């Protein structure tokens, strides 16, 4: 118990000392304390103060971007979250999100908040149009099941990242509009999209980008800073892809793709196509007409067109985001599923969870 208390105290001091002089936010010194406010849709006794306080971890708003060739601060192994809208492709590196957790961005006609929780490994894209008004999201400093609770600046409502909904305030119960992100390493992201733009380290804040504020947390299955129910069916920190449907989830592991690179599966009456290799997993929801296609994984035989992931018996070529970029269905899209990457324990803590193949 003394060691756990020391860890909590260390995190509070660490975040306090690592703030830039221009931030001007005084972090909350109360760590791991229950929140007593009423009108929460989740158990209020399990909503904890993470330490830095509201805005103590500063979200970014419309940051600057670098080209792939300029991003020498990234190693090939660094994980990034990728989003594509038309011809614009952007990457949001974990090494920046570790320190900011939310990036509010505009990508063409899409207003999106890239939300990332370093304590659960979950990166999820949310729409920023609420009640027909564009807003931004910030970091509340609160946690539920050791997961990020953002707040919107339009109504000051609090949201659960993994539940994708407001859990406190004026918007209580409202669902977030989701944009599915591709999580992969930097080498794969720039191979697929050589013209990709990536968030620059010129954020306006002084941070040790590339050095995690959480040490070996992501690889140490015994290290937790906050209480959460643990499911021992898989290693707790193993990265999985979770398809979400109401209160249920089904997860897929990288090892599921060691001998084949796509899976056609059903979950709660819906059909899915899940594509994966050692560097990424992505899930699509299949409509009836697409179920009749015979897909061929072609990522390793891509020649000069390097964003093709699948081909089919009709002669269509599909990119990783499910867009037909050549063939008779060119311009059509396979619907992205409601899915996210995350550490195993975090999915099981929020959802009734099935494991593919078990």
Task: Report a brief summary of the structure.
The chain is mainly beta and 358 residues long. The longest helix is centred in the N-terminal third of the chain and has 16 residues.
What does this entry look like structurally?
Residues 1-30 have low confidence and may be disordered. The chain contains five helices and 29 strands. The chain is mainly beta and 358 residues long. The protein has two domains: 54-139 and 150-199, no CATH class; 239-355, Rieske Iron-sulfur Protein (3-layer Sandwich).
Question: Strands, helices and their partners?
Answer:
Elements: H1 2-17, E1 47-49, E2 60-61, E3 65-67, E4 79-85, E5 88-93, H2 94-100, E6 102-107, E7 110-117, E8 122-127, E9 129-130, E10 133-134, E11 137-144, E12 147-152, E13 158-160, E14 165-168, E15 178-179, E16 182-185, H3 186-192, E17 197-199, E18 239-245, E19 248-253, E20 262-267, E21 270-276, E22 281-286, H4 288-291, E23 295-297, E24 308-312, E25 317-319, E26 324-326, E27 335-336, E28 339-343, H5 344-350, E29 352-355
Parallel strand pairs: 2-6, 5-17, 19-29
Antiparallel strand pairs: 1-11, 3-17, 4-5, 4-16, 6-7, 7-8, 8-15, 9-10, 11-12, 13-14, 18-19, 18-28, 20-21, 21-22, 22-27, 23-24, 24-25, 25-26
């Amino acid at each position: 118990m003394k060691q756990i208390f020391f860890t909590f105290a260390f995190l509070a001091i660490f975040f306090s000392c690592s703030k830039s002089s221009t931030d001007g936010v005084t972090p909350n010194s109360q760590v791991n304390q229950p929140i007593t406010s009423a009108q929460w849709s989740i158990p209020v006794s399990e909503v904890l103060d993470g330490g830095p306080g509201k805005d103590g971890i500063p979200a970014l708003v419309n940051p600057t971007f670098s080209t792939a060739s300029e991003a020498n601060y990234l190693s090939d192994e660094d994980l990034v979250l990728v989003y594509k809208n038309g011809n614009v492709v952007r990457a949001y590196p974990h090494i920046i999100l570790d320190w900011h957790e939310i990036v509010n961005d505009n990508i063409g006609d899409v207003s999106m908040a890239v939300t990332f929780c370093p304590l659960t490994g979950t990166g999820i894209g949310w729409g920023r149009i609420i009640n027909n008004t564009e807003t931004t999201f910030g970091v509340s400093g609160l946690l539920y099941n050791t997961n990020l609770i953002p707040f919107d600046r339009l109504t000051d409502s609090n949201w659960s990242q993994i539940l994708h909904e407001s859990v406190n305030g004026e918007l209580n119960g409202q669902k977030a509009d989701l944009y599915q992100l591709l999580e992969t390493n930097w080498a794969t992201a720039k191979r697929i999209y050589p013209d990709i733009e990536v968030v620059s380290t010129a954020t306006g804040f002084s941070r040790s980008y590339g050095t995690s504020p959480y040490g070996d947390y992501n690889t140490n299955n015994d290290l937790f800073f906050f209480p959460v129910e643990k499911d021992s069916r898989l290693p707790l920190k193993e990265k999985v892809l979770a398809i979400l449907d109401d209160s249920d989830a089904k997860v897929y592991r990288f090892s599921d793709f060691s001998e084949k690179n796509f899976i056609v599966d059903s979950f709660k009456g819906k059909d899915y196509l899940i594509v994966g290799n050692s560097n990424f997993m992505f899930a699509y929801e299949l409509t009836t007409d697409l179920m009749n296609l015979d897909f061929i994984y072609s990522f390793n035989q891509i020649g000069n067109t390097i964003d093709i992931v699948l081909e089919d018996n009709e002669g269509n070529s599909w990119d990783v985001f499910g867009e037909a970029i050549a063939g008779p269905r060119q311009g059509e899209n396979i619907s992205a599923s409601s899915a996210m990457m995350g550490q195993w324990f975090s999915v099981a803590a929020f959802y009734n969870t099935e494991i593919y193949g078990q």
